[in-house]
Design a protein that fits this description.
2 copies of one chain form a homodimer. Chain A is mainly α. The first copy, chain A, is built from 6 helices and 3 strands, in the order ααβααββαα. The structure holds a DNA duplex.
Chain lengths: 150, 150
DNA sequence: GGAAAAACTTTCAAGCTTAAAGTTTCATAC
DNA sequence: GTATGAAACTTTAAGCTTGAAAGTTTTTCC
């Protein structure tokens, strides 16, 4: 097998390790400072970007997780009062999920802290390197997305 | 907040999305072709790199997952006959985990396929770019590792 | 209008993951 | 020697995750 293959494998292993490290740090910060979890944060972030709300299927699509998964997370967010389910007029199968005002306020606090954490962690990446990295990652994602729809 | 902060946040979101896409593809391939899972594969990969075996704590250290986690995965690998636990002479608390011959043979097949999958996925990344990316990612991991031990 | 297909969601079983608490063993300091 | 603290590991409870199956509701199309 070629050297290039080995380089690609090494790149993947580092990508994986870096992502896990960052996720682990975020998870701990979210737990310590906001008594919440990464999946909950991710759902609220998605909803925050879509003020009009998202259907369950849209949510699982955006987050790239399975349908059943979202059901449980939203359930717990509803219990916490951060999120609510609305009926979709004209389609009794679907429901739309939105942030409550309390959820929105809470997420605003979390997002500010989150941005600081990321800023500090990724200060390790030289700004010149960031662009190339970003594009390479995008290329990988696009390649996989394309293959999936075939 | 600065443009650079925003760029870093965007970088992180792409990193996350790319990693999840790759993991998802690998998970599906492992399931379809080898009836196994990513965590099992990761454990066997770690053991394969350490022919003399690893203690449970070493294993969870290498994989960056919690102690209790490894217990369960190794348990199932033992049931499958891929892995065995040995007593560590002179320390009755510890046990050393190693691949069985069957586990080794099976992992060899899996690893070959895995390398091909990675090779194909990361063909989207220009070989010249790979090294730079690798180092940027490493910088992130090192930064977090350092902070953790403080 | 009715049957079949598609869309939206939940339920389920199995497995993964973590943090925290518990058990046994070891090291070392008195 | 024995107390005390650290180390290695497992157990537990709660939550996350997936893929598959099943339950509704809507759409399609004859």
């Amino acid at each position: 097998m070629s050297t290039i293959s080995k380089d690609r494998l090494r790149l993947w292993l580092r990508l994986l390790k870096a992502t896990r490290s960052v996720e682990s740090a975020l998870r701990e910060n979210l737990r310590q400072e906001f008594q919440t979890t990464l999946p909950r944060f991710d759902v609220m972030a998605a909803l925050s970007q879509h003020g009009q709300g998202l259907k369950m299927s849209e949510l699982s699509n955006v987050l790239k997780v399975s349908n059943g998964n979202v059901t449980g997370i939203v359930e717990r967010l509803v219990e916490d009062g951060h999120v609510l389910r609305e009926k979709v007029p004209g389609d009794r199968r679907a429901s739309r999920v939105r942030l409550t005002p309390e959820g929105e306020a809470e997420f605003t606090r979390q997002a500010a802290a989150h941005e600081n954490w990321i800023d500090e962690i990724f200060a390790a990446v030289a700004p010149e390197a960031a662009l190339g990295l970003s594009e390479a990652l995008d290329a990988v994602t696009r390649r996989l997305d394309k293959k999936e729809n075939m």
